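How it folds:
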Amino acid sequence: MSVGRIICGPDCVAEGAAWLAANDAGMARAVAAVGEVPLRLRADGFAQLLSAIVSQQVSVASASAIWGRMEAAGLTVPDAVSRASDDALRAVGLSRQKMRYAKALAEASIDYDALREMPDAEVVRELTAVPGIGVWTAEIYAMFSLGRADVFAPGDLALQEAARILYGLEDRPKERALREMADARWRPWRAVAARVLWAYYRVAKEREGIR
């Protein structure tokens, strides 16, 4: 089964944004409001997923500080995390739960090269089998680390709120409703639609004076 379209640069995002604007009036308004849609590609591999675990339920500043300590201690590769004592992991700022998740990821033996060739649904299944990696994290990894063009993360609160504002909805759409909206309106460029909505969320909040 094909992995589908891969976003590999700004031209791909621009193509997707143009398609969305031509096929959805709301997206046309959002694209006009945000201008250039961000690329947001990242590296793939163990460190990217470990960083996502570190970032769960803490502020951006706290996550950055913890990650900096982990890099300084050499705790961003599987072998080092597997061998690390609880004291060493606690010293860099990991909670007991995140220690367990980090160890589970290090010992999961994920074939990161093979993920690049897997269909989107299989990527999500493979990653969510690891404790500490939920559907949202797996979908974000597929979008930004693997460049998948037609993956969406409807559990993201900013995407839900952006959709509410953009389409004038009375309430913020729940995960299921937003997934259905994405499926119906934005295929085959759902990952670009997500980029547009995140960018639009920032524009809308700045317009409302909310930080």
Observations:
- Residues 49 and 55 are 10 Å apart (CA to CA).
- The two ends are 43 Å apart (CA to CA).
- DSSP finds 13 helices and no strands in the chain.
